[in-house]
Amino acid sequence: MTDSSEGINSPTHPSGRPVYIIDGARTPFLKVRGKPGPFSPVDLAVLCGRPLLLRQMFPKNAIDQVILGCVNVLANEMNPARIAALRLGMGETMRAFTVQINCGSGMLSVDIGYRMIREGSRELILAGGTDSLSHAPVQFKQSAIEWLADLRGAGSFKKRAQHFRDLHPTDFKPEIALQSGLTDPLAGLSMGETAEILAHLFSISRDEADLFAINSHHRLAQAQKGGFLNGEIEPMISTEGELFDQDDGVRPDCSLASLAKLKPAFEKPFGQVTAGNSSQVTDGASWVILASEAMVKKYALNPRAVIIDSAWSAIDPEIMGLAPVMSIAALLDQQVREFDKIDLWEINEAFASQVLACLKAFECAEFCRQFLDCQSPLGRLNQDRLNVDGGAISLGHPVGASGNRIVLHLVNALQRLNLKRGIASECIGGGQSGAMLIETI
To answer: What is the pLDDT of residue 170?
Structure first.
């Protein structure tokens, strides 16, 4: 690694100044188990942000912007970025804002920070993502809300008493807001149903999807056993004294036989998307620190990687899982780089069939010609270079945090394997995606 005190060989950028990833940390990702977990979104952001900031060579107030992705914002934590910044002791004058683009929120925070530094408006940024899906609010049906509104509008006791004759107890059956949030309001399809469409379009079998899921679990189990995540994860202790020091959704012993017992979750009885080959619902947070070259020199920092470029794309919400193909193709085109020159890939595992569909689309001449205006396929992505330490199927998908985690882990994996260049990407509910090209230093 280059000694920052001797200067840095600045890489080629689309325009503007180079932007460096200095450090990062995340919480363990904790599987939701039917009740609110021990940590709120801000709790999670603070618990991994505090040790990250403590080990830095610069004071907290040297940071001039905090950006935090969060989708499931709690009513008592509005603008969680600002609350987290204050709880981290970053001072009353710290500027902080929250961003939301569904599954890409954590990457969007990095991308906004990258562009701010590149263009010269900021120098040192804390960019992250967090979500505590176990705290997703419970809501009532619209009919119940209308009944309560009418009750409040009743002017007399007699009218209020008469209003109770129209009460339907089933209207007050609570609904978990997360279920509505995972359904596209225009397509009328849940995210899992869009994955079923991709499985059909690209002829992905149940066994293919289950094998991909098994691989994810085995890779994460191996990473935990090998200590590959030790420098990435910050342990947490709840107010009840319980220690959380690793992702707890991994199933090292899962097999085709065990996954075959699971019934389809979205298209019964013949669908192939199950709880076993889908991302897990989890709580978690992640941060990365971004710096300009001036800050690197001022504080004698040792950058770990540089952000080369990013791209965002959109597609029909009914096939939202294919959107990473679009953003990756745009990113490679912007950089005039060949597909096989990328050393490692992180593509968020929303669903096994969704990732597999992307891999098949990369190789499909018809798809690339029709959707990407390419005269030949992008290329073949070797799965040995994809999500080498597992992904969201095994460790979970706290929606606001996942895009940040894959950027952080891509840097860690590239360095561990002594590789140079990687791309992180994710599909985004609503039919969008982001992709980021990173090089180690």
So the answer is: 73
Domain that holds residue 359: 191-228+307-440
Judge whether 218 counts as a catalytic residue.
no
Our answer to whether residue 397 is catalytic in this structure is yes
Q: What's the burial of 59, exposed, middle or buried (CB within 10 Å: 0-12/13-18/19+)?
A: exposed
Q: Which of 48, 254, 358, 427 is catalytic?
A: 427
Pick the last residue of a domain from 305, 339, 361. Answer: 305
Which residues are bridge partners to 138 per DSSP? 176
Nearest Cα neighbor of 381 from 415, 419, 347 is 347
| Per-residue pLDDT reduced to its tens digit, 338-392 | 888 999 999 999 999 999 999 999 999 999 999 999 889 999 999 999 999 999 9
pLDDT for 3 beyond 50:
no
The one catalytic residue in 135, 217, 397, 409 is 397
**What is the pLDDT at residue 336?**
84
Judge whether 48 counts as a catalytic residue: no
Q: What is the pTM of this model?
A: 0.91
CATH number at residue 14: 3.40.47.10
Q: Which residues of 175-203 are buried (b: 16+ CB within 10 A; e: fewer)?
A: eeebeebbebeebebbbbbbbbbbbeebe
Residue 269 lies in a domain: no
Q: Do 322 and 299 share a structural domain?
A: no
From 48, 70, 103, 368, active-site residue: 103
